Amino acid sequence: MNFVQKTVWVTGASSGIGEALVWEFAKLGADVVLSSRNIEKLDQLAKELANKFKVKTDVIPLDLGDNNSVLKAVDEFKKQHHKIDILVNNAGISQRSLLIETPVEVDRKVFEINFFGAITLTKGILPMMLEAGGGHIVVMSSVVGKFGITLRSAYSASKHALHGFFETLRCELSDRNIRVTILCPGRIRTNISVNALKKDGSLYNKMDEGQAKGLSPKIFARRVIKAIKRNRKEVATGGKEILMIYIRRFLPWLYYILSSRVKPI
Q1: Residue 182: inside a domain, yes or no?
Q2: Which of 113, 89, 112, 119 is nearest to 182 (CA)?
Q3: Which of 28, 123, 150, 153 is the most exposed place for a label (fewest CB within 10 A)?
Q4: For every residue of the chain, which 3-state class applies, written as one string?
Q5: What is the pLDDT of residues 140-172, one digit of tens each?
Q6: Can 204 be counted among the known catalytic residues?
Q7: pLDDT tens for residues 103-115?
Q8: Contact 251, 129 (CB under 8 A)
Q9: Is residue 195 part of a domain?
Q10: CA separation (Å) from 19 to 23, 35, 249, 255?
Q11: What is the C-alpha separation between 149 and 144, in angstroms, rounded?
């Protein structure tokens, strides 16, 4: 795939994986649309990308936890752009709390951002893709989107839900040239643990040890680009934690033993 002058919309673009992705897309000549709640950071980033790579950049404010914000972002995109080639549903929020201690309101907040926000945005943009003859949707799941593990009940469940929704979307629209790539990263060196929710809904505000030693966002972003080029359906990337996917699939009895003993991912 040639990304030159392709229009790519990335959510959660102000930091971590999202920021690394917009750099990679812009470097390859794509016009990038950046979204998150941190408008000041996005404006600065958009200017840097436009100056360095001479591509078109646009900033659209977006809060995935607010349905009105998502709908407004879709309307804004349609006003400013006549096409979208790639939508990267990257933004999300994690959790650091035991299931039995976590109020359902916190569970709902995680789902609102990770699942409902992503599918609302996707449904809003799909008609543009279909009218243009196709497009590529990239979905940020997680290694724990493939199995459950302690302290991640709502987070893991929201990522499982993404698999069900977007695999169905792929089935229903593959004959209309809609491609779907689901990403299942393990530990990536971002602030996802810092911004995770505790049982009372406040921020965890700490960097997990495993997170701090994780794969760099830049390396991960380059692997994502390769996956898009090759139209990969699902990609698991990270360190040894990725082995849990295969243990769960081929040695379920071992997974049941390990899942309650290993450090959360």
Answers
A1: yes
A2: 89
A3: 123
A4: CCCCCCEEEEECCCCHHHHHHHHHHHHCCCEEEEECCCHHHHHHHHHHHHHHHCCCEEECCCCCCCHHHHHHHHHHHHHHCCCCCEEEECCCCCECECHHHCCHHHHHHHHHHHHHHHHHHHHHHHHHHHHHCCEEEEEECCHHHCCCCCCEHHHHHHHHHHHHHHHHHHHHHHHHCEEEEEEEECCECCCCCCCCECCCCCECCCCCHHHHCCECHHHHHHHHHHHHHCCCCEEEECCHHHHHHHHHHHCHHHHHHHCCCCCCC
A5: 999 999 999 999 999 999 999 999 999 999 999
A6: no
A7: 999 999 999 999 9
A8: no
A9: yes
A10: 6, 10, 32, 34
A11: 7
Instruction: Answer whether residue 203 is part of any domain.
Output: yes
Q: Which of 236, 122, 219, 227 is nearest to 181 (CA)?
A: 227
- Tell me, yes or no, whether 264 lies in a domain: no
**What length does the chain have?**
265
The model scores a pTM over 0.90: yes
Range of the domain at 66: 7-258
Here the CATH number for the domain that contains residue 200 is 3.40.50.720
Pairing relation of β-strands 234-237 and 178-185?
A: parallel
How many domains, the chain? 1
* Average predicted confidence (pLDDT) for the chain: 96
How far, in Å, CA of 29 to CA of 3, rounded? 6
